[in-house]
Design goal:
The complex is a heterodimer of chains A (322) and B (273). By secondary structure, chain A is an alpha/beta fold. Chain A has 14 helices and 8 strands. Chain B folds into 2 domains: 178 residues, B-lactam Antibiotic, Isopenicillin N Synthase, Chain (Jelly Rolls), CATH 2.60.120; 79 residues, no CATH class. In chain B, 34% of the residues lie in helices and 26% in strands. In chain B, α6 crosses α7 and α7 runs antiparallel to α8. Chain B is globular and about 65 Å long. Chain B starts with a strand and ends in a 5-residue tail after the last helix. Classes of the chains: A alpha/beta (322), B alpha+beta (273).
């Protein structure tokens, strides 16, 4: 049992297993602003404090449920899903520049919870749904008076779990940020994101069997991206979905954030200033192999997303066929 | 690997040991020669030493050297009878004192051990529950009047975290059949018993240490406040030890630093997907 204040100022940082089930590792965050590009960087800063190296709560995950009952976090304002290399960093930058926002960006423990069934087959969908609600409530604790929004940016590959995430939070508005797949593939082939390195994320997450680990790097990246686009497309007819193509940046993003954050006029001009954005089109470096793989493996989903974005009333099937 | 310690079946009367110590004059104490290993709080009195060097606490390997008893031994009849209980040649006898709140850093001693023909025996005269003696990283609890063999060629260190001095009668004994029999390190059954006794003792001490203190801190936000703003490692270690100490939780800076390193390691898991 826990006292009412025991986790005030504390934040869950890690999901892990002990013999008797899943556990949460906590560290003291106080009034820390999460302004780094990723949650892990912020935690790294917090763990430099000697106190956090020695005195960390380590509790069964069910303590998060108690904590949510005692002190629920801010209700999520919006979720950010993205294809990576599609302007997701800009979103974080824009969001963290407002003091009223709590921004949890690509938190490792959210990903651990979403993929917990892959590592442990006793985990049910219902488990993941409630764990996700509890952990987001604990991450979204108001640490400063002016805070009133909570944004959660997921890892790119978490897009695969959209149905489960939306089951946990059916009413939260979300965006999917994507881009011409050739540009994304060229960028990843120069310097690959975690999910683009075969085996770093279990192939089954993307619906592949282990055979896929033997294909060429370009091929693997294209398949992963194809799965992510398919997953977003499959949920894109939901009313709380906003699709944003990279070529609409920054204006589409500013519009979405302005409406979700309920901004004053002054803040509105500030967000536009933050949104100055230079992007280099890497597609000139695309080889014919990349272009072909992109067209075969990602192209149909990409075109369907575009069609949906431009005519939101079409059904998913109509979008695929158009 | 054989055990590095052994509690002998000899034991002595703690109050008689203390009575004899009281007879020694304060001017008889001299600082231990190994100043590199201690913080000034380690000194002693020679009871038996190499002839003509009787004030020295240095023992080297006195095997075969001509020895003589000092005046200090002559005025202490109980110490004489303790020495007499050993059916082997004692090549050095000293009282060593580790003052309250002092420590001896980890080190090894050379030219001593069964393979050298001379071994070290400790008989605690005055000790306290906050003395921590570690041999090979394991804590060994030695009570007053008990008689312990210690293989000091292995790494060892001592912290006296208590409020009173720790005094031991320290003997170097030349190995013979009698001593071999008193310390049956190679007897598997008996070694097992000693090891088991050791583990229980260590667990008992650990309960009052860092683990318990951590649980206390995690339940008490006011204690957390005292510690969590300390950004510098040294300041954090000093304050944490002080706060714990005042509440009766005893552990060392080394324990705490090892825990900090472990905590930092778990932090690294945050990056593995």
């Amino acid at each position: 049992m826990i006292g009412p204040d025991v986790f005030t100022g504390w934040i869950p940082v890690r999901f892990y297993w002990r013999d008797d089930g899943p556990y949460i590792d906590w560290c003291y965050a106080g009034k820390h602003d999460f302004t780094e590009i990723s949650f892990s960087r912020d935690i790294q800063t917090l763990l430099r404090l000697p106190f956090n190296q020695v005195f960390r709560h380590q509790t069964p995950i069910t303590e998060l449920r108690e904590w949510q009952t005692i002190k629920p976090g801010i209700k999520p304002t919006a979720f950010i899903f993205h294809a990576s290399r599609s302007g997701a960093g800009l979103v974080t930058q824009m969001l963290t520049s407002f003091k009223q926002n709590i921004v949890i960006s690509e938190a490792r423990l959210i990903d651990s919870i979403l993929r917990s069934h892959v590592k442990n087959d006793s985990v049910t969908d219902a488990n993941r749904v409630e764990w996700l609600r509890w952990v987001i409530s604990a991450l979204g604790q108001k640490r400063k008076e002016q805070q009133r929004n909570l944004f959660v940016k997921f890892d790119s590959w978490n897009t695969i779990y959209l149905p489960l995430i939306l089951r946990a939070f059916p009413d939260v508005p979300w965006i999917f940020l994507y881009r011409d797949p050739v540009e994304i593939l060229v960028s990843h082939l120069k310097q690959r994101g975690i999910h683009m390195v075969p085996g770093m994320i279990e192939p089954s997450v993307f619906g592949f069997d282990d055979e896929v680990l033997r294909v060429a790097p370009e091929d693997y990246c294209a398949r992963v991206l194809g799965s992510i686009y398919q997953a977003a497309l499959a949920q894109s007819d939901r009313p709380n979905c906003t699709l944003i193509n990279h070529n609409q940046l920054p204006h589409a993003l500013v519009a979405f954030l302005t409406s979700s954050m309920d901004l004053s006029e002054e803040d509105n001009s500030k967000i536009c200033a933050r949104a100055e954005y230079d992007s280099i089109d890497p597609s000139r470096e695309a080889t014919s192999v990349i272009k072909q793989l992109s067209a075969d493996l990602v192209g149909p989903a990409y075109l369907a997303l575009e069609s949906r974005r431009l005519s939101p009333l079409k059904s998913a099937q109509e979008c695929v066929n158009s | 690997m054989t055990l590095g310690f052994w509690k002998l079946s000899l034991s002595f009367d703690a109050s008689s040991l203390k009575e004899d110590v009281e007879k020694l004059g304060t001017e008889d104490w001299i600082q231990h020669f190994n100043t590199g290993y201690h913080d000034g709080g380690w000194d002693g009195i020679a009871l038996r030493a190499i002839k003509d060097n009787r004030q020295s606490l240095y023992t080297g390997n006195n095997r075969g050297n001509q020895l003589s008893d000092t005046h200090s031994l002559q005025v202490c009849p109980y110490f004489q009878s303790v020495l007499g209980a050993f059916k082997c040649r004692i090549s050095s006898a000293r009282i060593l004192r580790l003052k309250a709140n002092s420590s001896i850093r980890e080190h090894r001693d050379y030219n001593i051990g069964f393979d050298c023909g001379v071994i070290r025996i400790h008989i605690p005269i005055v000790t306290n529950p906050d003395v921590e003696f570690y041999l090979d990283g394991k804590q060994i609890i030695m009570n007053e009047g008990e008689c312990w063999y210690l293989d000091i060629s292995r790494p060892h260190r001592v912290n006296n975290l208590g409020k009173t001095d720790r005094l031991h009668l320290v003997l170097d004994c030349e190995v013979n059949d009698w001593l071999d029999e008193m310390i049956p390190l190679h007897d598997q059954d008996k070694s097992g018993q000693q090891n088991a006794a050791l583990r229980i003792a260590v667990d008992a001490i650990r309960k009052n240490g860092l683990g318990e203190f951590r649980l206390l801190v995690l339940k008490d936000p006011s204690l957390q406040e005292k510690l969590r703003l300390l950004e510098q490692r040294d300041a954090f270690v000093n304050t944490t030890l002080q706060v714990a100490w005042n509440l009766g939780y005893i552990f060392t800076a080394a324990d705490l630093i090892a825990e900090m390193d472990r905590g930092h390691q778990t932090g690294a898991d945050l990056w593995t997907v």
